[in-house]
Amino acid sequence: MKGNSFGLLGLNRVGERVYRRMLTVPGEGERELAESLGLSGQELAVALVRLRALGVVRPSSQPPHTLHAVSPQLGAELLLSRQEAALGAAEQRLRESRAAAARLVSEFPAGAGDGVHGEMEVLQGIDSIRDFLQVLNSEVREEMLTFAPGGAQTGANMRAARPLNQRLLERGVRMRTVYLESLRRDRASVAHAEWLTRHGGEVRTTPVLPNRMIVCDREVALVAVDSEQTGQGAVVVRTRGLLDMLCALFHETWQRSAPLGVPRRADGTGLTPQQAEALRLLAEGCTDQAVAKRLGVSPRSARRTAAEVMARLGARSRFQAGVLAAQLGHLPGPDGVPARRPRATI
């Protein structure tokens, strides 16, 4: 027997050393036994108590009535029997726990405490959302599609997400995530996104996203109830028609988004996609706060972007910037591409 041969049977290294010595030198006194193994009296006493409790060491029936180590064959059988008994007890507890869990689930079905409407559930609050996501992550098999608005990700969210994402990717789940363009300005968020891509995930960015959304295996989707306060609640969708629509929305957005490693440059209008989106929001009359929320940037950054766009257009007001943008063809059309209108003079 090499190494800690009895380790799997319940003996630690000190216990095995003592047991081996007692088999090799029967009848050795405790003082000599401790000295030969380099153990203190206390260490030896603890080991002997454990060995006696396991039944592999017992008092000798013959003088001088020192401790006796049973044969390795008998010792192994005793240790195996103890483990088999412990395993049987653990299996019984597991069966009882499964039965108790089944009773609990039957009393509080999915969505209990929230709203359940046919094939749709409404989850109230961030705790219910996180509980549902934990179950969803364990059940997804092939694909996870995600809209992640909000710009830069918090450190706490990234630390919590990394082990979950790694397990999904190791299971072969294809993960595609669309972040906001503003994520590229935050080093920690970019590092997290790059970590995802190194481990097999796919990441793209776009100037604006409609809402927070997760679609798994085209069978279930989670959509925030309020796009401004995404932690307030979420709708769980299982209706086929709605799932098809959400998947189509994701794929359309994915095609218009830029891979993480590809820099976003200005197009023929001279505006970056984020500037063009900011201009569209300004033309709709959105405030700096609203623009900042949609782009996932600070209000200060939103004001700076607005000033840059107005300066490029030569506009003295936001209203004039909207008029000029419409006439010069800068405003994005329904497909997100600036409309090409003939130049006009104001």
From TrEMBL:
<protein>
    <submittedName>
        <fullName>Helix-turn-helix transcriptional regulator</fullName>
    </submittedName>
</protein>
<dbReference type="InterPro" id="IPR016032">
    <property type="entry name" value="Sig_transdc_resp-reg_C-effctor"/>
</dbReference>
<feature type="coiled-coil region">
    <location>
        <begin position="80"/>
        <end position="107"/>
    </location>
</feature>
<dbReference type="InterPro" id="IPR036388">
    <property type="entry name" value="WH-like_DNA-bd_sf"/>
</dbReference>
<dbReference type="Pfam" id="PF00196">
    <property type="entry name" value="GerE"/>
</dbReference>
<dbReference type="InterPro" id="IPR000792">
    <property type="entry name" value="Tscrpt_reg_LuxR_C"/>
</dbReference>
<dbReference type="InterPro" id="IPR051797">
    <property type="entry name" value="TrmB-like"/>
</dbReference>
<feature type="domain" description="HTH luxR-type">
    <location>
        <begin position="264"/>
        <end position="329"/>
    </location>
</feature>
<keyword id="KW-0175">Coiled coil</keyword>
